[in-house]
UniProtKB/TrEMBL annotation:
The lineage of its organism: Bacteria, Bacillati, Bacillota, Clostridia, Eubacteriales. It comes from the Bacteria. This is Carbamate kinase. PANTHER family: CARBAMATE KINASE, CARBAMATE KINASE-RELATED. Pathway: Metabolic intermediate metabolism; carbamoyl phosphate degradation; CO(2) and NH(3) from carbamoyl phosphate: step 1/1. Keywords: Arginine metabolism, Kinase, Transferase. Belongs to the carbamate kinase family. One of its GO terms (biological process) is L-arginine deiminase pathway. The keyword Transferase applies. GO terms for molecular function: carbamate kinase activity. It catalyses: hydrogencarbonate + NH4(+) + ATP = carbamoyl phosphate + ADP + H2O + H(+). GO terms for cellular component: cytosol. Residues 3-286 form the Aspartate/glutamate/uridylate kinase domain.
Length: 313
């Protein structure tokens, strides 16, 4: 029987620049349509590190070229642009692959806002570097005029750092559910979503933050009542003692085992750690739910239980 699957695409599914992305999405579309062909319902989330970096750099250069005319572009707007650009390529690649296999299914991207808590502790300690390098003068100006947090990055110049708060809820969730119910392949929560917080009334304000796509995908998977959360990345399985002589690749992982390994420091913060944490949270969110961490090209084998690391109770 077909499952409802949320797929979180990692950096390797999209490449690092425009031509790379154009090529990468073809392979990505094949892996996704393999699952659709088997009767699964698929909802796609994705990262946006290189893409939002490129857009933010371009917007910074625009401001530099004529500061009177072009005020700095908010990060939330840059994330929205990256969702549009990536969604455009994914929609096209998926459309083509579906049509090539004779499957008549629409694909749609939802510009997705994700609510964060303005009191999230992450806002007191911004750690995620974003965008172009700046000179000391430029950095001082941004601190004074825009209230940016900046760090000196290993002698290479100054960079803005932003917070990475936890996603609370997905603003467009009902639209996403309706589109899934209508049989569409939905792309949502790109780059972890456009971070927003509620102010007075119904107003939403963009936050100067980036949300981890693994955590956002976990919230998405819960809120669309998925059976499975698949995190596709650059390794086939999760390892303990990763990169060491006694490295051990794991076929499955229970939440309790995962917590033990997390405490022992087996998973790198910012890369494998959020994936394992998201997988555990999803697996524990309701009976019968499971998560899978594997390589993009192994998605089909992974769903069939032949490879990857499965996380379930
Ligand atoms: P993505 O773009 O898919 O989010 P990341 O680079 O953020 O990818 O995270 C995946 C990477 O995490 C892997 O390519 C691997 O190098 C690294 N990694 C860190 N710790 C582990 C571990 N314990 N087991 C497997 N991979 C790990
Ligand atoms: Mg990552």
């Amino acid at each position: 029987m077909g499952k409802r699957i949320v797929i979180a695409l990692g950096g390797n599914a999209l490449g690092n620049n425009l031509p790379e992305q154009m090529i990468a999405v073809k392979q990505t579309a094949k892996a996704i349509v393999d699952l659709i062909q088997e009767g699964h319902e698929v909802i796609i989330a994705h990262g946006n590190g290189p893409q939002v970096g490129m857009i933010q750099k371009a917007m910074t250069e625009l401001t530099r070229s004529d500061p009177e005319k072009y005020i700095p572009c908010p990060l939330s707007v840059c994330v929205a642009m990256s969702q549009g650009y990536i969604g455009y390529d994914l929609q096209n690649a998926l459309r083509e692959e579906l049509l090539d296999r004779g499957i008549n299914k629409g694909v749609a991207t939802v510009l997705t806002q994700v609510e964060v808590d303005p009191e999230d502790k992450a806002f007191q300690n911004p750690t995620k570097p974003i965008g172009a390098f700046m000179t000391k003068e430029e950095a001082d100006k941004m601190v004074a005029e825009r209230g940016y947090n900046v760090i000196e990055d290993a002698g290479r110049g100054y960079r803005r750092v932003v917070a990475s708060p936890k996603p609370q809820s997905i603003i467009e969730i009902q639209s996403i559910r309706d589109m899934v119910a209508a049989g569409l392949v939905v792309v949502a929560c790109g780059g972890g979503g456009i971070p927003v917080y509620k102010t007075e009334g119904h107003h939403l304000k963009g936050a100067a933050a980036v949300i981890d796509k693994d955590f956002a995908s976990c919230v998405l998977a819960q809120q669309v009542e998925a059976d499975t959360l698949i995190i596709l990345t650059a390794v086939e399985k999760v390892a303990i003692n990763f990169g060491k002589p006694d490295e051990k690749w794991l076929d499955s992982l229970t939440p309790d085992e995962a917590r033990k390994y997390i405490a022992e420091g087996h998973f790198a913060p910012g890369s494998m750690l959020p994936k394992v944490q998201a997988a555990v949270e999803f697996a524990e969110s309701a009976p019968g739910r499971s998560a899978l961490i594997t390589l993009l090209e192994k998605a089909k084998d992974g769903v069939a239980g032949r490879t990857g690391t499965a996380i379930h109770q």
